Amino acid sequence: MRIITGIAKGIKLKVPRGLDVRPTADRVKESIFNILANLELPNGRNALAEATVLDLFAGTGNLGLESLSRGAAHTLFVDHSLASLAAVKENINHANFCKMAEVRRGDSLKVLDALNKSGRLFTLVFVDPPYNRGLVNTALQKLDMSDVVEHGGVIVVEHSKHEQINTDWHYLKLVRSERYGETLVAFLIQDEKTTLGGS
């Protein structure tokens, strides 16, 4: 597993033995970031340029680190596992992103509540929870009803093909979904004009 492109291109990321995570495969990650680079967003904004990124269920920090390499300004990595966060910190140091990264330990869903209360805003959010545990739609519901994602912000959700995500939200609009074997990746945009059943 490595950083594919950008200022930290080629940096290998560590996944400690016994760590119960499922890092995004390089081919899937490359596709995700190619799609992000070409998404049509409000005001012609680029999803990665100077982005403030929230990497939930961060694991090794694979997606958040790739974002920093490709032009994001800051990433907050969230995970409940000490082993995961130790790997994230090691990978942050190895990629020399210490000044652009923040690590927080906690349940990702509870951290979302805390971030909402604090007024923190993000332009890009990665949601990659353990598969088939019912966490995907719960996380999306919290993001839909909170003020954590700014208008026009993007949410990227990685989930199992056996877990169907809801598409009817108050403020989130599903704009694209791709399948890679057992994995599905959904792209949603926070759209204030979207209401249940359409705009």
TrEMBL record:
Q: Which domain of life is it from?
A: Bacteria
User: According to its UniProt record, what is one Pfam family this protein matches?
Assistant: Cons_hypoth95
Q: Which UniProt keywords apply?
A: Methyltransferase, Transferase
**SUPFAM superfamilies in the record, alphabetically?**
S-adenosyl-L-methionine-dependent methyltransferases (SSF53335)
**Protein name from the UniProt record:** 16S rRNA (Guanine(966)-N(2))-methyltransferase RsmD
Q: Which CDD domains match?
A: AdoMet_MTases
| Database matches in PANTHER family | METHYLTRANSFERASE (PTHR43542:SF1)
